[in-house]
Amino acid sequence: MSALLDIRGLRAGYGRVEVLRGVDLQVGEREIVALLGSNGAGKSTLNNTVSGLVPASAGSVRFDGRDLTRAHYREVVRRGLIQVPEGRRIFPNLSVLENLELGSFTRGRERRAANLERVFATFPRLRERRDQRAGTMSGGEQQMLAIGRGLMAEPRLLILDEPSLGLSPLLVEEMFALIRRLHDEGLAVLLVEQNVGQSLAIADRAYVLENGAVRFAGLPQDLLASPELRQAYLGL
Prior knowledge:
alpha/beta, Rossmann fold, 6-stranded mixed beta sheet, 4-stranded antiparallel beta sheet, 28% strand
């Protein structure tokens, strides 16, 4: 498998505090990869380093064969590597439409109208609320908006950081069905989730991160088949 995203020996942190300690991780074309681990394991730091928001101190990040290790975050977006961050981070005082249009500011601007129609077809509720202030919507609707904004940038790989956080059980089911549908349409996904069962059910491969290092890399069924790994890293 040729990796679309190829991370080798990645180290990063904040000041003198090293969070990532030599991480290797790959995501192939049209693949869902689950990144699991407890709070504080380094998952969000990995996302932000890959996205150009946190500088790497060592190692490399390559995307579609290009070295993006120390690229500016706008260059990362231009290449089609898009993160939907934890906590949604929408603009609450802007309308749904304005939030979506901002998603195509760096990439996909020429096809904004067509991409907007695609997002509205994927999330009909956003079409209904296109003129509504984003901050007045429910948590589930705001998560739809955050993902829709990511799709406006025509991602080749979408990093989803805790997309089911704070959602009702029914909306969680809908969220994972959406991720599977986006994957079936050809999108590669790096899925960072606390919902272990749902993540492993749709993932092609999985990584477990502990204290900034990879403790498991392989097939979901192999992870679930090991009582030691399940108990130590997944709490199952």
